[in-house]
Amino acid sequence: MNIALSQNLQSQSPHSRAVDVERAVAQWILKGELSAGQKLTEQEVALRLGVSRGPVREAFRALEDLGLVQIEKNRGAFVRKIDLNEAVEIHDVYSALEELAARTAAGRLSATQIAELKFLVESMDAASEAEDLDRFYALNLSFHQLLVEGSGNRRLLSVYNRLLNELHLFRRFGLMQRGEMQLSNRDHHQILDQIAAGDSNGAAEAMRRHTTERRHKMLLRSDKFDPKSH
Predict the structure, then answer these.
(1) Where are the chain's structural domains?
(2) Considering the domain 84-225 in this protein, what is its CATH number?
(3) Which long-range contacts (CB under 8 A, 24 or more apart) does 110-119 make?
(4) Structural contact between residues 137 and 88, judged by C-beta atoms closer than 8 angstroms
(5) Cα–Cα distance between 130 and 11 in angstroms, integer?
(6) What are the tens digits of pLDDT across the range 80-94?
(7) pLDDT by residue (tens digit) across 29-56?
(8) How far apart are CA 227 and CA 230, in angstroms?
(9) pLDDT over threshold 60, residue 15
(10) Fold of 3-79
(11) Measured between alpha carbons, how far is 148 from 64 in angstroms, rounded to an integer?
């Protein structure tokens, strides 16, 4: 148990403790410390974090709303499990949201926000040259997140974040081969160019090409893991 985290949790209000428990369990899930389909018990999480079961119960309900946990009557809570078919469905909706975000952002991003996107794209160039997959992936997430936030559509952002959480449960979604980084970032350059030019249709089309290729790669990787997956 992390003693510092436990002491911090104990000093907070019940709601704040529940929020921090939620964040901690979400990190365990997204980092793969808890596997898909794994049963979660209030007692074990409470002991690990040094809190009572009340905040844990509240955190589980919040994690269910985020799409990371599934609560079944008379069975308890489980880490959500996503199969290929569901992952493809989620990805298609997720991609449509990204296309909408790119179209909207092209007409409203400030010079500062465009500069932030440019910095991320250039940082991804450096990461790809260094063959740093972990850094590239983190920067890639930040690029797409900033675009969605830049759309100014709060409902879009909320749904997008939930779908992203669900896709992270499908472990093959985030996989990338080393040679793919340069190709992926070439798409990012094209998306950024269209946004900087204020071309909404061009930005949406560039995003559509990018997400279509991402979907194709996800299916190819799934075939390598399981030839009968679809």
Answers:
(1) 3-79, 84-225
(2) 1.20.120.530
(3) 113/146, 113/150, 114/192, 114/195, 114/196, 116/146, 117/143, 117/146, 117/147, 117/192, 117/195, 118/192, 118/196
(4) no
(5) 43
(6) 999 999 999 999 999
(7) 988 899 889 999 999 999 999 999 999 9
(8) 8
(9) yes
(10) Arc Repressor Mutant, subunit A (1.10.10)
(11) 23
User: Distance between CA 189 and CA 203 in Å, rounded?
Assistant: 11
**Same fold: 3-79 with 84-225:** no
Query: Which of 81, 1, 79, 80 lies closest to 40, judged by CA?
Result: 79
This prediction has a pTM of: 0.79
- Region for 32 from its dihedrals, namely left if φ exceeds 0, alpha if ψ lies in -120 to 50, beta otherwise: left
d(CA 151, CA 160): 12
Query: Does 59 score more than 60 pLDDT?
Result: yes
Q: What is the pLDDT of residue 17?
A: 86
Spatial contact of 79 and 38, defined as CB atoms under 8 Å apart: yes
Q: Is 216 exposed, middle or buried (0-12, 13-18, 19+ CB in 10 A)?
A: exposed
**pLDDT for 202:** 98
Closest C-alpha among 165, 164, 124, 167 to residue 143: 124
Instruction: Identify residue 139 by its one-letter amino acid code.
Output: L
pLDDT at 226: 52
| pLDDT value of residue 177 | 74
